[in-house]
Structure prediction request, 185 residues.
Amino acid sequence: LHQRFSPLTLLFLRKLRRVHIEPQRFAVELEGDIWTVRTMLSTERIERVVQQVILVRPQVAAVPAEIQQKRDPQIVLAFPLVASGGQSLFAWLPVMASGLKFLVHADFVTTLSRESLLADAWNAWLWGQMPAALAAAVEELVASPSAPLYSKWLDLWPTGDLHVPELRAAIEEAEQRLREMKVIA
Prediction:
């Protein structure tokens, strides 16, 4: 199961606080604002941390009445404490590679195969909320000099190609907001 299932998949399940899965022996736990993914090495009986992420849930904007759906408008961003390569775009479960070094979750409307996102009014509205969510997340990450990612968040910020054009546009707009907030030069 562990070879086919990433424990990071559990991060965006709403009421989850702790889960242990046997016999692969991995656990996902919430400790304060930091989610920790641990795995037990069966041959050595030693538990090791696989990954730790900080989940940021920026404030949600009001959904316009004309696109109101019974969907969750919350965008959640998960920033690893140690950069770990390309991450996925989530809609409760992984949908596709994003090209980012942090995870992005929103209640996107996906295709039936869950391999891509539909081009509909709801998703367009979510993409429109993404720049504010990204800027708010960075603002939260740098709110205190003692924050775990205070001086490292920029290492997670995208500098290369992104796999989703809407995400590239959101990153560019977020960067403009961060300049206006004097977070970046």
Remarks:
- Residues 63 and 125 are 8 Å apart (CA to CA).
- The chain has a mean pLDDT of 82.
- Residues 121-141 form the longest helix (21 residues).
